[in-house]
Amino acid sequence: MKLQVNTLVKIFLLIVLIYLSVVYYIYYENKVLYGNAKYTTAIALRNTYGSGNSGVEYRYLVNDSIYLAWDSTSKKALEGANYFIVFDEKNPKHSSFFVECPAHDSIKFIPKDGLKVIPIKKYQKYAESYFDDLLNGWLTQFFP
User: Fold this and answer.
1) Across the strands, what pairs with 85?
2) Is the pLDDT at 1 greater than 60, yes or no?
3) What is the spatial distance between Cα 143 and Cα 9, in angstroms, rounded to a whole number?
4) How many other β-carbons are positioned within 10 Å of the β-carbon of residue 55?
5) In three state form, how does the secondary structure of the chain look?
6) What is the pLDDT of residues 59-68, one digit of tens each?
7) How far is Cα 26 from Cα 35, in angstroms, rounded to an integer?
8) Phi/psi at 103 (nearest 5 deg)?
């Protein structure tokens, strides 16, 4: 009986350690992304559906290089439409898709190295709120 309890405690601690490691990794990746944030537009290629994880595949261009990515989203993107994304200026393959921020047809030019801010105030506030929620949640207060 005591052996079973010890085994269960070890398994529980291992699960907690793995969970905290994943949370810290996500936190760290988003902290780096926030520190090196640039914005551009991406084309939504395809909505994907999985067991508990829906998202969108998208394509974007930074400094004449094409990047393909996937990000989880809370709702479907309009396939073929443009949306704003944030990408890491130092590592452009690291990005996040903002399904809540479709790019208007009036936006004709974005520098090939991206924008420092999204030119639509409402969308820039959304981006700031996105990072604030990720980096200042109750659990992340324990991370450096």
Assistant:
1) 40, 97
2) no
3) 25
4) 20
5) CHHHHHHHHHHHHHHHHHHHHHHHHHHHHHHHHHHCEEEEEEEEEEEECCCCCCEEEEEEEECCEEEEEEEECCCCCCCCCEEEEEEECCCCCCEEEEEEEECCCCCCCCCCCCECCCCCHHHHHHHHHHHHHHHCCCHHHHCC
6) 999 999 999 9
7) 14
8) -85, 125
